[in-house]
RNA sequence: CGGGGUGUAGCUUAGCUUGGUAGAGCGCCUGGUUUGGGACCAGGAGGUCGUAGGUUCGAAUCCUAUCACCCCGACCA
């Protein structure tokens, strides 16, 4: 991609509407623009990050045996009345009527719909277990949307639902999803904790939240350095770790980006969703559900990794991995070399800053957008060398022209 | 929904108290000089002052209503 062609309207100053750093930087880097409170347009850089997060989630879930589906956003009220959530969900549910005055809502989550599919299409224990997921826009009329895409009314979410014949089978899949989520967040490069949580309106039994550690996180969490134990502030019972006796708990803040639930039979009983077991007896499905906030994951990455100059993307979800910057756009030799290197690299992950203008302006934009690798073609070219500068560490390497492509590819 | 606050050019904002020509910086356009961390000079475009009423000879400024947005609280990926 050529920078002169890329639609990334960067802002030099902080927009007044943004309070937290990820919101400010997503606006300044030209990733998002607001349409209404809690409703955001994704521009090319923002969409690319969302797609990279989605792809990692998709790869790991597929590998874990889940199957991707795509459910409607527009949902008839009948299913919601079956479980009682038409009333329980309250004002947070976006309700609409069609021309015949039939009531619908815009999907905030899809337990009812997936359970309806299961009861209509799964009859035998032999068809279990199964885990179905989708990556889709969700709607929740939040009481107070805030912090950009961190808490918006329209947002991208991955939601998965599993169906089981036995409690043991649910436990096994829950553990499978637990591990899968760890792989997903490890791949992105997060520092995170898994804490026991309140299930809220989802209901059911046990649930755990994945919290990305960041000073600006909305929730206070406590964790033990010795073992994996972590807990959110409202559930904390003592100052010491219950597993490692006497060890005191450390306090930090986190952003919830994932939540896994053991639902049990709450929805299947409410909706009479049953299968026949090996004794020809009708049994309600035992269910689990597993969510990840995709947009929030991108915002959390920025909260966790940024500096005064801008975003420091982890390699795995950077919108582009490399930017090539000729120091002087009027210098023909530098431009020829920049284009040659651009030609030798993967265009899908590389931006060539071919704009006229001074080096400082281009580097400021590059640091704001957060490309992990800057390739600067400047003064050292006379000595047959090109500069590689890493966004995260600031480390600078002078590399001989002949080795530059190999060197860059080694860093990806 | 309760409490607090803000709406002036694409962005950041001055002007409002005390009514009388809408101003700046950045960005944008044209020309020139520049080119290693957001350059400089010259010229230029861009404004229903959130909206609707009212007071007044005259309203960005005063009054009323209304809308939008932001922050704190309950909710959540």
UniProtKB/TrEMBL annotation:
Catalytic reaction equation(s): tRNA(Pro) + L-proline + ATP = L-prolyl-tRNA(Pro) + AMP + diphosphate
Any GO CC annotation of this UniProt entry: cytosol
Keyword Aminoacyl-tRNA synthetase listed: yes
GO molecular function, one term: proline-tRNA ligase activity
Residue runs in coiled coils: none
CDD domains the record matches: ProRS_anticodon_short, ProRS_core_prok
Listed InterPro entries: aa-tRNA-synt_IIb (IPR002314), aa-tRNA-synth_II (IPR006195), aa-tRNA-synth_II/BPL/LPL (IPR045864), Anticodon-bd (IPR004154), Anticodon-bd_dom_sf (IPR036621), Pro-tRNA-ligase_IIa (IPR002316), Pro-tRNA-synth_IIa_bac-type (IPR004500), Pro-tRNA_synthetase (IPR050062)
SUPFAM superfamilies assigned to the protein according to its UniProt record, in alphabetical order: Class II aaRS ABD-related (SSF52954), Class II aaRS and biotin synthetases (SSF55681)
Pfam families: HGTP_anticodon, tRNA-synt_2b
Positions of the Aminoacyl-transfer RNA synthetases class-II family profile domain: 38-326
Keywords tagged on the record: Aminoacyl-tRNA synthetase, ATP-binding, Cytoplasm, Ligase, Nucleotide-binding, Protein biosynthesis
Self-association state and partner proteins as the record states: Homodimer.
Protein name in the entry: Proline--tRNA ligase
Organism annotation: candidate division WOR-1 bacterium RIFOXYB2_FULL_37_13
Taxon lineage: Bacteria, Bacillati, Saganbacteria
